[in-house]
Design goal:
By secondary structure, the chain is of the alpha/beta class. The protein has two domains: 35-51 and 281-367, Aspartate Aminotransferase, domain 1, CATH 3.90.1150; 73-278, Type I PLP-dependent aspartate aminotransferase-like (Major domain) (Aspartate Aminotransferase, domain 2), CATH 3.40.640. The termini are far apart. It has 14 helices and twelve strands. Helix 3 packs antiparallel against helix 11 (268-278), helix 4 (79-89) packs parallel to helix 11 (268-278) and helix 5 (102-113) crosses helix 10 (251-260). It is globular and about 65 Å long. It has helices spanning 4-7, 23-26, 57-67, 79-89, 102-113, 129-136, 154-159, 183-192, 217-223, 251-260, 268-278, 280-307, 327-336, 356-369; strands at residues 44-45, 96-99, 119-124, 140-145, 165-171, 198-202, 227-232, 245-248, 318-321, 339-340, 342-344, 348-352. Bound molecules: pyridoxal-5'-phosphate. Pyridoxal-5'-phosphate is lined by residues 49, 101-103, 127, 171, 175, 202, 204, 232, 234-235, 240, 245. Homodimer.
Length: 370
């Protein structure tokens, strides 16, 4: 007769014949990445809010140097990068946590504070990674509709807070609609929300913002222990392919996020590329490119207004078309015209600001949608 160790514990007839996935995982919405051209296709890729500029030569050199050292593990805590980021932002290194893109940092911070059934409040439509990260962490998504102009409704978000709320996600500029949250609106939210609710300000597109009414989030952090900032080198810094994001938080929260982070989550190559990008001369060149993209955004927005569009005021590197039921058809039409865009079925379509020729090709398509 076999012992229990050899047969495993008793199984009843209703034991499934496969390994069950967690119900929360079975129910996850898919993350739909921006479309990519298949090999040989000549298409402008305006579907993922990427920076159209290739990395600076100094950054490519740092990557090549680091590539020759990849038999070694990276510095687990990315000490040098954390120190450089802290100096750059003007906070203590204890307050900075890096991760494999800010999407990973978001997952880690949710894992650090969300228990089973806890609520996370966020605007919708917003960044599609939010509901996925909340479910994976075991939390419950509480979505608050955007205002008609594609802006976050912060009073409604404050009103959605309950005893179970652990986190509020504030995406500014909001992906995919583009508008920013203003300082007075955020002050009111922070005054209304209990001190034990984490308020995450996702500033993925910070460097593209030119609206002067936005908050100084780092100054807010000094006044509110519950505020956490999320930033990334994927967009303005053009390092989307290397995956470097970071959180800035009070030291106690930063330590909690660090504790649940994937060990060695940021590769040595990514750390070195990020460090090279933060060098003052590189930094200056990169911000000139951001200025050029902001100028392109203004040109595209003016041309669209001229065509007769009345769209949300984007402060990021993309524009939003609330096309409703026509969304998928318009996206297909853009593709036939050589432009990849990011449609959200039944809702609207996001178009990144890219190369001048790409933006021109897109403007021609947009004129036909009216
Ligand atoms: C692109 C984006 C990020 C950054 O993602 P990474 O993982 O750092 O590449 C974070 N938040 C929002 C809202 C974004 O659009």
């Amino acid at each position: 007769m076999l012992s229990a160790v050899e047969t495993g514990p008793d199984r009843t007839s209703d034991t499934p014949a496969h390994v069950p996935l967690r119900p929360a995982v079975e129910a996850l919405p898919p993350y739909v990445p921006g479309a990519r051209p298949t090999s040989g296709e000549q298409l402008w890729k305006l579907s993922s809010n990427e920076n159209p500029y290739a990395p600076l030569p100094s950054v490519v050199e740092a990557i090549a140097r680091a590539a020759a050292e990849t038999n070694r593990y990276p510095d687990m805590y990315a000490t040098e990068l954390v120190e450089a980021l802290a100096a750059f932002v003007g906070v203590d290194p204890e307050q900075v946590v890096v991760g494999n893109g800010s999407v990973a940092v978001l997952a880690h911070l949710l894992n650090a504070v969300v228990d089973a059934g806890d609520e996370v409040v966020f605007p919708w439509r917003s960044f599609e990674a939010y509901p996925i990260a909340v479910s994976v962490a075991g939390g419950r998504s509480v979505t608050v509709p955007l205002g008609a102009d594609g802006r976050l409704d912060l009073p409604a978000m404050a009103a959605a807070v309950t005893d179970r709320t652990r986190v509020i996600l504030v995406c500014t500029p909001n992906n995919p609609t583009g508008p920013v949250v203003h300082a007075d609106e955020l002050d009111e939210l922070l005054a209304a929300v209990p001190q034990d609710v984490m308020v995450v300000i996702d500033e993925a597109y910070l460097e593209f913002v030119r609206d002067a009414a936005v908050p100084d989030a780092v100054a807010l952090l000094a006044r509110h222990d519950n505020v956490v900032l999320l930033r990334t080198l994927s967009k303005a810094y053009g390092l989307a392919g290397l995956r470097v994001g970071y959180a800035i938080a009070a030291p106690r929260l930063a330590a909690g996020i660090r504790a649940v982070s994937t060990p060695f989550g940021v590769s040595h190559v990514a750390q070195q590329a990020a460090l090279a990008s933060l060098e003052p001369t590189a930094q200056a060149e990169l911000m000139e490119r951001v200025d050029a993209l902001v100028a392109e955004r203004a040109r595209v927005q003016a041309a669209l207004r001229e065509q007769g569009w009345d769209l949300p005021d984007s402060q990021a590197n993309f524009v939003w078309f609330p096309l409703g039921e026509r969304t998928m058809e318009c996206a297909a039409q853009a593709r036939r015209a050589g432009v990849l865009v990011r449609p959200f079925a039944g809702d609207g379509l996001r178009v990144s600001i890219g190369e001048v020729e790409a933006n021109d090709a897109f403007l021609e398509v947009a004129a036909t949608w009216l």
